[in-house]
Amino acid sequence: MTFFKKYFKGDPHIWAIIVGLSVFSLLVVYSSSGALAYRFKDGNTAIYIMRHSGFLAIGLLTTFILHVFPYKYYARISQWMMILVVPLLIVTLFFGVDENDATRRLSILGLTFQTSDFAKMALIMYLAQRLASKQNEIHDFKKTILPMLIIIGLVCILILPANFSTAAMLFAICIMMLFVGRASFKQLASLCAVGLLFFSLLVVSLNGLHRIGVDTVVTQRGPTMVNRVCRFVGDNKVCSFLGYEPRDDLFGHNFQARQAKIAIGTGGFFPNGPGTSVQRNFLPNSFSDFIYAIIIEEYGVIGGILVLLLYLTLLYRSIIIVQKCEKTFPALLVIGLSLSIVFQAIVNMAVSVGLMPVTGQPLPLISMGGTSILFTGAALGIILSVSREVRRNENQKKPEETPVAA
Fold it and tell me: Contacts by 36-45 with C-beta closer than 8 Å and gap 24+?
C-alpha cells in the first residue's frame, strides 16, 4: 500500500474504478472477440486479447504520466491543441479512411486514429481555459460567449457528417460547461434550440442532396443518420417526412439492435459466467459498440448495473473534486472531461438496450479500440492531476498536530 500511496496520487476511488474497468475489459473483450478471431485469425483469440492488453497498458501509462504533471500545464497546451484540431478534422473528413460510409479515422505512417477523440479533448480543455480567463466578462455575450460559440460550432460541424453522436454529445457538454461557467441561462437555452434546429436541417439537407444524386463522402452520411432514426422510431409518417422511403421490412434492417436485444433477453438477472455468450457469434461489433449487450448476456443484469454504477461513481467522485477546487479552470476541466467519459458510456449502454438509435460509440475503457482507450486514459490522467493538487492543498491546510502535555 505504501508503494501505491507514494506513486499513485489523486482520488483512490477513481484509481480503483480505472483498475476495475480495465480488468473487466480484459474478460469481456476476450470473450466477445472469439467470433472475430475465427473469422480473420483462424481462431487465434490470443491475437486480439494481446493487442487489447497492449492498448490498455498504453492507456494506463498515459493516465499515470499525465496525473503527475500539475494541471496548470494543460491550460497552456490547450491552445496549441486547438490549432491542430480544425486542419485535422478537415483532412479526415475528405481524405480519411472510409469505414462504413464514414471517414472518422486518419491514417499516418500506417497507424490510424480517430481525430474526433482528439478534437473532443482539445475543445474541452480550451473551453475550460477560456471560461476561466473570462470570468470578469462572462456576461458580455459578443465579447466573451460569441467567440467561444464560433469555435464550438466549427468543431461540431466538422465532426457531424462522420459522427453525429459525437458532435451532439460534444455540443451538449460545451453548453453544460458554459452554464457552470456562469453564462446566461436564457442565452444557453436559445443556443440549444438553435443548435438542435441547425443539426436537424443539416441532416435532412445531406439526405436530400444524396437523393438528387450529389454523392460525396459528406452527403452519404445523411441517409445513414435518417435511416437509423426512422428504424428506431418506427413511424412511417415520420420517415416519409424525413425523406426516407418506408419498407415493409423496416425493422428487419435493424439487425444490430435486434441481436443486442436477444443477447440481453437471454442474459437474465444473474450471471451465466464469462465465455457463455451465444450472440457474440451474430452481433456485429460485439467487442466495441455493442459490448454492453454481451456484458449483460454473460454477467446478467447484475453485471450491467455494476458497470453502470462504476461510471456513475466516477462522475460522483469528479463532482467532489470540483467542489474542492479553489480555481475555475481545474473545476471546469474536470466537469468537461468527466462528462465526456460518462456521457459516452451512457450512450453506448442506451443503444445496446434499445433506448437510442444505433450509433458508433465505444464503452470507455472497456470496448476494444486503441484511440478510445488512449484518450480516455488521458482524460482520467488529467482528472487525477487536478485531484492530486486538491488533496495536496488540503493536506497543507491541516493544522499541525501538537503533542499533548504529560
Answer: 36/287
Report residue 103: phi and psi, to 5°: -110, 85
- State how far the alpha carbon of 23 is from the alpha carbons of 53, 56, 91, 366, in Å: 10, 10, 36, 9
Spatial separation of the C-alpha atoms in residues 140 and 116, rounded to whole Å: 30
Helix 185-211 and helix 146-159: axis angle, to 10°?
A: 30
- For residue 150, which of 133, 168, 174, 166 has the smallest C-alpha distance? 174
Lookup result for grid cell 469528479:
318
CA distance 105 to 97: 5
DSSP bridge pairs for 113:
106
Radius of gyration of the chain (CA): 22
Work out the burial of residue 313: count CB atoms within 10 Å of its CB; fewer than 13 is exposed, 13-18 middle, 19 or more buried: middle
Residue 179: CB atoms within 10 A of its CB come to 15
Contact yes or no for 292/306 (Cβ under 8 A):
no
The pTM of the full predicted model, rounded to 2 decimals, is: 0.87
Per-residue pLDDT of the chain (406 residues; tens, 9 = 90+): 566 667 788 889 999 999 999 999 998 888 887 767 777 666 677 788 888 899 999 999 999 999 999 998 999 899 899 999 999 988 888 877 766 656 677 777 666 778 889 999 999 999 999 999 988 888 888 888 889 999 998 999 888 877 888 888 999 999 999 999 888 888 888 878 887 787 777 766 766 666 666 555 555 555 666 666 666 665 555 555 555 554 444 444 567 777 888 888 887 787 777 777 777 777 777 777 888 988 998 898 999 999 999 999 999 999 999 999 989 999 999 999 999 999 999 999 998 888 888 787 889 999 887 888 999 999 999 999 999 998 888 777 766 544 444 3
Cβ contact 32:280 at 8 Å: yes
